[in-house]
Write a structure and sequence with these properties.
By secondary structure, the protein is of the alpha/beta class. 49% of the residues lie in helices and 14% in strands. It contains four helices and three strands. Strands 1-2-3 form a three-stranded parallel β-sheet. It is globular.
Length: 84
């Protein structure tokens, strides 16, 4: 079974009980709203961090990396498929 939940850095801590329950019940969590820190909540705590991460990844990959791609990579690293 698959369930989409809002999942991004701003709701990560609050989502832990739901994610634990879903894991116990073998329910795959997929993320929607993963780009919300950029689209809906600009001016939040990740705003100063994302440009630096994007610049560092752009240098190491030798190609441009956007802030949106950084958030998508964060979700992938956490093991969640995402819908943007």
């Amino acid at each position: 079974m698959v369930l989409q939940i809002e999942l991004h850095p701003y709701v990560w801590k609050a989502s832990q009980p739901v994610l634990s329950y879903m894991k116990e019940c073998n329910i795959l969590a997929t993320s929607y709203g993963g780009l919300a820190p950029l689209a809906r909540f600009s001016g939040g705590p990740v705003d100063p961090v994302l440009p630096g991460i994007a610049a560092r990844l752009s240098q190491s990959c030798d190609k441009p990396v956007t802030e949106a791609q950084v958030l998508q990579l964060w979700l992938r690293k956490k093991g969640f498929p995402y819908v943007t």
